[in-house]
Design goal:
The complex is a heterodimer. By secondary structure, chain A is mainly alpha-helical. Helix content of chain A is 73%, strand content 3%. Chain A has 27 helices and two strands. The longest helix of chain A has 47 residues. Chain B is mostly helical. Chain B contains three helices and no strands. In chain B, helix 2 packs antiparallel against helix 3. The radius of gyration of chain B is 17 Å and the shape is elongated. At the A-B interface, helix 27 of A face helix 1 of B.
Chain lengths: 634, 101
């Protein structure tokens, strides 16, 4: 087994990384109201501190030789039943190190941004309390050394997601969106829990080392497939993949920093993390990897078409997130785990950037989210505008931004491993991505203003724009520093966990890059011509294409289908059970017993007249009766 | 000359019937009480008579028992009647209907 602790001892501080946000979450929950604006500052400092700690610990990890880059901290034994034991054990390896840096780093910037964004909200302290609690659970999820603790974090982030989507619960549709998110992800979570039970029954433990390090013949291939698919079902729910993607667009009801932190940068990527972490199980099965690949591909394309038709700026980004997560799963499905992780990191930067940019736009336009009422914003809000453009270029995959390397490498692996169809469809997905993000940028920031709010929009305060600038820098630099090729820095760093990058023959990297860039640029050019030049009546085109755009805008009526197939029958069943089974059946039985006793007593009480002499007559007649009975027996 | 047993039994039956009728027909608690005593003593008489007939002492012992118990019962019963009188100003059992269902 691995030794605990490290020479320098900083690794022993690992437990502080999640605990600091937790402590401040508790503080803000109880006295956040009295802290006023300080609540946000304290919360940001907590996550910042967590980030600094993580950096120091990861630096320490980096200073060691590759094979010693592992730190396990056993805090206490939580459950011990028979031969099964589950502990609160933290595990820092290269994979969780990558995750905690993203969570605390991007999380810190979003917290700072939220200080400005949430200003004046009556539940300011509570907001930051939830946000910190989320960071705690997310860190717990990625630092867990067993599936049990991972599941605790998994459910914890789901809870925080629910609380924050419904943060403005005064509006019924927000509360409904929160419920929808919770219930939809619960479907996947339940499957995942069954998967965990299956692991326990086959391995007798949930520890990563024991389960993932077990020799290949420990379990049958079919069992591995079952476990992997059940775990992947959890990932589908959490990462909003088809068919459980419906909750994420509605989750945009939450405050924008929440969308950036939870529904773009961190929580929704937990599914990708789970698949990468459980990679040995998926590889053992083989079939499961194919399922991951196909689900990822379908989601990437499906969501991209939906994103193309949304008019709400946040919904475009939500569908874009779903699509990008699909790309990550595609990478994982091709055993290109470093590609999935790199895309995760890059996506965390540029998508958080774009969500925060969208929040800044809403801030400057009195909470307007309709793209049709925007236009020309780049002149009114230059910092928001240009940083958003950087994020959009990164997503579209323009060299040398992070998204270029991320998406390009995934497509390259598809090409090199002989998956021509995956490559072609993935390229189509990339084309659609460039198209929808180009549409968003040109509609919102370029062309002529289409409303008074757009004409009088104002730039946001520095507390909001500075995080934008830093994230933009991250979106630019992440690609260059972490991965300029499929075997880049991040790939080498992650190799102990993810194994080597798959190799194969295909088109040269340069040729693939040229093709991808050409496609992205032409898509952006088309978007600019249609939406920003003013020479194309795009609303008219949309009307002529009906009902296609309307179907795409509604997410291809998946919501309607679920509503007809599951929600309405569910409500009908619940109503039947409440109004017929319960109030007529169960209540009827209980009330019937009570009523019967009451009626019996009502007739029985008449015997008790209160006349002592009639009782005496009763005694007498009884005695006579007994005597007569005895007499007849003699 | 021994008195035939039938005399005692008839007397006992008459006394018991009088007692029973008194219990059932009287309203005054004191008179009911006295009627109960009459019943008890009718039974005692029967017990002693049968005891003599069988030349066994069991019946007489039982008669003593019943006298002692009757004495104890009189103490309690009279106390209750006095308490009822003090509280309600009457010992009419038909007026004491507090436990009617």
């Amino acid at each position: 087994m691995f030794t605990v602790g490290s020479a320098s001892g900083v690794g022993n501080l690992l437990w502080l990384v999640p605990v600091v946000p937790l402590a401040i979450a508790v503080v803000n929950l109880f006295i956040g109201r009295r802290l006023g604006r300080l609540a946000g500052v304290v919360a940001s400092v907590a996550v910042g501190l967590s980030f600094v700690l993580s950096s120091v610990i990861v630096m320490d990890l980096l200073s060691r030789p590759t094979e010693e880059r592992l730190e396990i901290q056993r805090l206490y034994e939580w459950i011990s039943v028979g031969r099964f034991s589950g502990g609160v054990d933290l595990r820092l390896d290269v994979l969780s190190a990558t995750m905690i840096l993203v969570i605390t780093g991007v999380g810190f910037l979003i917290h700072v941004y939220a200080i400005g964004y949430m200003e004046g909200d009556p539940r300011y302290g509570r907001f930051f309390s939830y946000l910190n609690l989320f960071v705690f659970f997310m860190l717990l999820l990625v630092l867990a050394d067993n599936y049990l603790l991972l599941y605790v974090g998994w459910e914890g982030v789901g809870l925080c997601s629910y609380l924050l989507i419904g943060f403005w619960f005064e509006k019924p549709e927000n509360a409904t969106a929160a419920k929808k998110a919770f219930v939809t992800t619960r479907i996947g979570d339940t499957a995942m829990l069954i998967g965990l039970a299956l692991i326990v029954s086959k391995f007798g433990t949930l520890d990563f080392d024991a389960v993932l390090g077990a020799p290949g013949d420990t379990i049958a291939k079919g069992t591995a497939t079952a476990i992997s698919l059940l775990l992947f079902a959890g990932a589908i729910g959490k990462s909003a993949q088809v068919p459980l993607h419906v909750w994420l667009p509605d989750a945009m009801a939450g405050p924008t920093p929440v969308s950036a932190l939870i529904h773009a940068a961190t929580m929704v990527t937990a599914g990708v993390y789970l698949v990468v972490r459980s990679a040995p199980l998926f590889e053992l099965s083989g079939v499961a990897l194919t399922v991951v690949l196909i689900v990822g591909l379908v989601t990437a394309l499906f969501a991209a078409t939906c994103a193309l038709a949304q008019d709400d700026i946040k919904r475009v980004l939500a569908y874009s997130t779903i699509s990008q997560l699909g790309f990550m799963f595609m990478a994982a499905g091709m055993r290109f785990y470093t590609g999935a992780m790199f895309m995760l990191v890059a996506h965390a930067f540029y998508k958080a950037l774009m969500f925060l940019g969208a929040g800044s736009v809403m801030h400057g336009m009195h909470e307007e989210t309709d793209l049709q009422r925007m236009g020309g914003l780049i002149r009114r809000m230059p910092i928001t505008g240009w940083t958003f453009v950087i994020g959009a270029l990164a997503l579209a995959g323009i060299w040398p931004l992070a998204g270029f390397f991320a998406k390009d490498q995934i497509l390259e692996i598809a090409n090199h491993t002989g998956r021509t169809w995956i490559y072609l469809l993935g390229t189509l997905g990339a084309l659609l991505s460039a198209l929808y993000i180009g549409r968003l940028v040109f509609l919102a920031f370029f062309g002529a203003p289409r409303s008074d709010e757009a004409r009088h929009a104002h730039e946001s305060p520095p507390v909001m724009t500075v995080p934008l600038v830093i994230l933009a820098a991250g979106a630019v630099l992440a690609g260059l520093f972490l991965s300029t090729s499929a075997e880049g820095t991040l790939a080498r760093f992650l190799e102990p966990i993810t194994g080597p990058v798959p190799h194969g023959e295909g088109l040269s990297t340069l040729a693939l890059s040229v093709i991808a860039t050409a496609i992205a640029l032409s898509a952006l050019a088309v978007a600019s011509w249609i939406y920003a030049s003013g020479r194309v009546d795009w609303l008219g085109i949309r009307e002529r294409l009906q009902p296609l755009p309307r179907a795409a805008a509604s997410g291809w009526y998946v919501d309607h289908a679920y509503s007809t197939l599951f929600v309405k029958p569910g409500i009908a069943a619940a109503r039947f059970s409440a109004e017929v089974l319960d109030s007529k059946g169960v209540d009827g039985l209980v009330n019937g017993v009570g009523g019967g006793v009451r009626r019996l007593a009502a007739s029985g009480r008449r015997i008790q007249t209160g006349f002592v002499r009639s009782y005496a007559l009763g005694f007498f007649l009884g005695a006579v009766g007994v005597l007569v009975w005895l007499g007849t027996r003699l | 000359m021994r008195t035939p047993i039938a005399y005692f039994i008839v007397l006992s039956g008459v006394l018991f019937t009088l007692g029973t009728l008194g219990v059932l027909l009287r309203k005054n608690a004191l008179l009911i009480f006295m009627s109960v005593e009459l019943q008890l003593n009718a039974v005692n008489l029967a017990l002693v008579a049968f005891s003599r007939m069988h030349l066994a002492l069991d019946g007489q012992v039982l008669a003593f028992f019943s006298m002692v118990v009757a004495a104890a019962e009189v103490v309690v019963g009279l106390a209750i009647i006095v308490a009822v009188y003090r509280r309600r100003g009457t010992v009419d059992v038909d007026k004491a209907r507090g436990l009617a269902g």
